[in-house]
Amino acid sequence: MSRTLVIGALLSAVLIGLALLSLIWTPHDHTSLNIPNKLQPPGAAHLLGTDQLGRDILSMTMVGARTSLGVALLALAIGLSVGVPLGLAAAMHKGSWLDEAIMRGNDIVFAFPLLVMAILITAVFGPSATNAIIAFGIFNIPVFARVTRGGALPLWEREFILAARVAGKTRAHISVEHILPNVLNLLIVQGTIQFALGIQVEAALSFVGLGVQPPTPSLGRMLADAQTLVTLAPHLAIVPGLAIIGIVMGLNLLGDGLRDALDPRLQRART
Amino acid sequence: MLRYVLKRLASLVLSLAVASLIIFTLIEVAPGDPASFMLGINAQPETLAALRAELGLDVPKVQRYLNWVGGMLTGDFGTSYTYRTPVSEMVADRIAVSLPLALYALALSILIAFPAGIFAASRRGQAGDLGVMGATQLGVALPNFWFAMMLVLVFAIHLRWFPAGGFAGWDKGLIAGLTSLTLPAIALALPQAAILTRVMRSALLDVLGEDYMRTARAKGLSARQTLWRHGLRNAMIPVLTIIGLQFSFLFAGTIIIEQVFYLPGLGRLIFQSISARDLIVVESVVMLVVFAVILINFFVDLAYAAVDPRLRSRA
Q1: For the whole model, what pTM was predicted?
Q2: Interface ipTM above 0.90
Q3: CB A257, CB A9: distance < 8 Å
Q4: In B, which residues are within 8 Å of A123 by CB distance?
Q5: What would the pLDDT profile of A66-107 be if each residue is shown by its tens digit?
Q6: CA closest to A256 among chain B residues
Q7: CATH fold of B94-265, please?
């Protein structure tokens, strides 16, 4: 196993584990206000300090990371559940009007910068976590359609697919039974990367008020709250920021490591 | 080449048409009538009707779409509901902040990534390469707006080298303008520089394995000469594409960075318009940003074909 894979897996496991731990335990109640105890620097009572309302930052970060991970995961699910069937269908009828329409549609979605698309959707339907998920989910669709189509096209030329066709299986049947398992590696790697990107997108959208809404904490929302207080209490911004960097780095390293591990033909040094 | 350009041009027009339709439709389904929003709940029906006519809201939807697109083509972006000024004027002021910021950030990204990428590729597998690659992992994970806050903390508040926010204005001189854009540009550029460094390195490594590089060495050129004379030029194709993509990304990225530094650019205009429900401004500015992105991608495609003749014949 490569070092990249080990570091990435460990970093992601620890941080995602901490976020999930918040489902059953946090050092303090993340909603309990304690105004006299506000803006405490990191110390024994509050390991990472307190915010402007005296809430425990470590507990907030754990719960916030859970929200951020949830947003990224749901957007990933939208991208996979729509993008993968589209990609399979496009590859199945390569060069047909369907393929052409899917790929051109993808081009158009790509032309919308992610942020602009999110702004447009939230401007029209109002800012909420759901709309942030939909915006990033839509962005994920062409990403997965492209990866699936790209991986599936060369497979259709292979002997084992020909054999399946000779045996009388329909194209749709072959797509699900033979093509999909063979592009799964690609999807796992891309999924890890899009998952990491989702954390960053949630943070950016919530930071400008277009994503997760109060009182739900998320890493992006914590940074938005910290913006005006950063000179008084830098730890308000530093802690959630480092959490984002840690999770994103962990997932990116994991994706890189998985790509090398799953595809031995790739030279590791090149990436 | 001409056929290739025409084909790209047709797809450019198609993308713009579809994008404008999507934006128009989305804004159309937005709840709330701008005229009643502006006049409040106690407005007289006659006043409301008059304002709707003035804003061009009383004609059928198809006609309104055509008016909007036709207006944009002739530089008329409509009139802001809240400020009652032409959107094109508001946009011109704001672009004078956002565009230089994106270009500044792009220049920084290239200035950082080229040397770093060349350095890493020429020391493949050694400590220097691992160090650069480790740094890029960190850079890619860095949220630019968070990095911006940290830059403000260190360079504006503690060291007082740069302003913490706001824009001096170009009329105060080039230096003053650039000084207020320096921290935002660094914040935008660093994560992009990390990506570009990785692309530069892997493009160079791909090229270094080519036969013509071995021939150049066999001819008697030193490793350094081969890298500079033959390696870099051939590695430029993937690098150029990424630079094009980064520019559109940076241009859109200014929207968020402007919030951290209170810069009066397109991003702030969009957010102000959203909260004022001034949808004609949102509509036109979003279309403008999408247009810029599609146009940049078009030029990247053309540059691509100009650098690599193989692409022309394939298309």
Answers
A1: 0.87
A2: no
A3: yes
A4: 30, 270, 274, 279, 282
A5: 999 999 999 999 999 999 999 999 999 888 888 888 887 887
A6: B137
A7: MetI-like fold (1.10.3720)
